[in-house]
């Protein structure tokens, strides 16, 4: 495993990688990672905060790693060096798992590794990433995206969610939960099991048409909700409402409603013994099959498995 260091880096993201993968953990009883810190230069590199870092390895080691983590780039509007692009492509072509945290997505995109893929980055960079790399399907509403061999996370602390998720993929939930507890990671964010909650359930602050419809929907999740219903509350024609809604949220009204229903089911799965079927109906899904389908698609686990992991 290799992580990239660079001049002008913020140390938090690099520190997260080192904390999780660089510390020996013999007490876990599983083969742990051999982390190498790599850079384009052997000279000391400046870090935010007034100190320097010197990497022990170069891009040749990064290109030969089985997992490559890019925790950021020096300038989201700048050019990624040809040397780094080549190393990233070589690693990917060799079958390496490619991972970015925050603005590191710009490096993966510059190497062409995100073309045609869904990816995320820090919300404040999402629009720029989409504009610079139009072949990427940028999703600014999630903590991370697991694309199998290419994974991207949102800003800073969301990198912890993705890194713990990597441990879960490699060693299972038991080991990942131990690591998460030691990091004092909130249980509902472990491994991205609730990665859509914070993004989906937004407070409604603006008194505009879309906000009024969203607020109404949150109060009527248990009832059937159609686009026509939402448009009527917003006092807009359906097509006009859908256009404004998508511009405001980046998704369709019905997809947003589904995400709210999944989010609303989590406290009941965590804190009650109600049957899964009853919970699905209580948040507005018309059948247990529909509930399980949408829950699994959003949370990447079943309602029952989620309850076993996070139920009181």
Q: What can you tell me about this protein's structure?
A:
The protein has 312 residues and is α/β, with parallel strands linked by helices. The protein is built from 15 helices and ten strands. The strands form three sheets. It has a six-stranded mixed sheet with strand order 2-1-5-6-10-9, with helices on both faces. Strand 3 and strand 4 form a beta hairpin. Helix 9 crosses helix 10 and helix 13 crosses helix 14. The radius of gyration is 21 Å and the shape is globular. The protein starts with a strand and ends with a helix. The relative contact order is 0.08.
Tell me briefly what this model is.
It contains 15 helices and 10 strands. With 312 residues, the chain is an alpha/beta fold.
Mean pLDDT: 88
Strand order of the largest sheet: 2-1-5-6-10-9
Number of strands: 10
Euclidean distance between termini CA atoms: 36 Å
Judging from the principal axes of the Cα atoms, what is the shape?
globular
State the low-pLDDT regions, or none: 186-207
Estimated helix fraction: 40-55%
How is the main sheet built? Answer: 6 strands, mixed
Order of helices and strands: EHEEEHEHEHEHEEEHHHHHHHHHH
- Proportion of residues in extended strands: 5-15%
**Structural class designation:** alpha/beta
Number of contiguous helices: 15
As a whole number of angstroms, the C-alpha radius of gyration is 21 Å
């Amino acid at each position: 495993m290799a992580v990239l260091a660079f001049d002008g880096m913020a140390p938090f993201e690099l520190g997260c990688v080192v904390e999780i993968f660089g510390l020996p953990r013999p007490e876990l009883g599983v083969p742990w990672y051999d982390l190498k810190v790599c850079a384009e230069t052997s000279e000391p590199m400046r870090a935010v905060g007034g100190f320097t870092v010197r990497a022990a390895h170069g891009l040749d080691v990064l290109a030969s790693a089985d997992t490559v983590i890019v925790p950021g780039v020096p300038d989201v509007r700048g050019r990624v060096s040809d040397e780094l692009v080549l190393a990233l492509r070589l690693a990917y072509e060799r079958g390496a798992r490619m991972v970015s945290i925050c603005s590191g997505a710009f490096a993966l995109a510059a190497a062409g590794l995100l073309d045609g893929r869904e990816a995320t980055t820090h919300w404040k960079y999402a629009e720029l990433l989409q504009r610079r790399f139009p072949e990427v399907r940028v999703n600014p509403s999630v903590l991370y995206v697991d694309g199998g061999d290419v994974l991207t996370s949102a800003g800073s602390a969301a990198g912890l969610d993705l890194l713990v998720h990597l441990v879960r993929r490699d060693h299972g939930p038991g080991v990942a939960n131990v690591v998460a507890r030691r990091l004092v990671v909130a249980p509902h964010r472990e491994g991205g099991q609730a990665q859509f909650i914070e993004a989906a359930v937004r407070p409604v602050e603006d008194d505009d048409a879309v906000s009024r419809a969203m607020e109404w929907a949150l109060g009527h999740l248990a009832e059937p909700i159609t686009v026509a219903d939402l448009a009527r509350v917003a006092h807009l024609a359906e097509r006009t409402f859908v256009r404004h809604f998508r511009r405001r949220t980046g998704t369709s009204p019905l997809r947003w409603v589904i995400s709210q229903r999944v989010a609303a089911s989590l406290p009941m799965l965590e804190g009650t013994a109600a049957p899964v079927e009853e919970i699905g109906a209580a948040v507005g899904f018309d059948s247990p099959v529909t509930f399980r389908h949408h829950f699994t698609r959003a949370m990447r686990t079943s309602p029952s498995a989620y309850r076993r992991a996070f139920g009181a």
